[in-house]
Each structure stands twice: as structure tokens, then as C-alpha cells.
Amino acid sequence: MQRVCFLLKVRQERLEEYRERHAAVWPEMLAALSAAGWHNYSLFLREDGLLVGYLETEDFAAAQAAMAATDVNTRWQADMAGFFEALDGAKPDEAMKPLTEIFHLDRPR
């Protein structure tokens, strides 16, 4: 299982609305994420807007591609794009650049 962690930046003036949107994620979006192989997906938000995402999947590129092929993801990404800083024209899910894992407690040494 591949562990993936990424960072994005939520606009300061939209933090509360971003929290509200994630308190009520569309059921069809939740179903699509599960069907695409996204497991243990979590988002953590700091008060300055730093967003840390974490998920587990067999193959991140395949999981991203599976989501990109869904209509619900297209609608969700368009709806969420205005919440983020520095996307440089990318959709939020395209701006998710995985961090390099350098330590894991349970990794054999």
C-alpha cells in the first residue's frame, strides 16, 4: 500500500467555508473516491490555510486517473478551485504533488 501526503494552501478568507464544504462532501464524491482506491483519506487544515492531505492507495497515479475520469470529480474540482492559492491554472487534484516519505515507524530497517 502506498502512503501519499500532499500540501495545498487554502485562501485565508475562505477557511470557514472550506470546512463547511468538507463537513458535507457529496455522497457521489465519497463513493467515487472509494471506488477509485482512495483509502484512509484525511485532510488536516491549519489556521493559516495550510492543508495537509493523506491517503493510502495501491497506485496513486491510477487512483488519480480513475478520479479524473469521473463526472463528479470534474464538478467537485471546478467547485473547489477558488478555495486554493497558487494553483497556476491547475485543478486542485492536479496540484497535489506527493511529498517524499523519509521515515515510517513500521517500515522494516
From TrEMBL:
InterPro entries reported in the protein's UniProt record: Dimeric_a/b-barrel, Rham/fucose_mutarotase
Gene3D superfamilies (alphabetical): 3.30.70.100
A Pfam family matched in the record: rhaM
Protein name: L-rhamnose mutarotase
PANTHER family: L-RHAMNOSE MUTAROTASE (PTHR34389:SF2)
Domain of life according to the entry: Bacteria
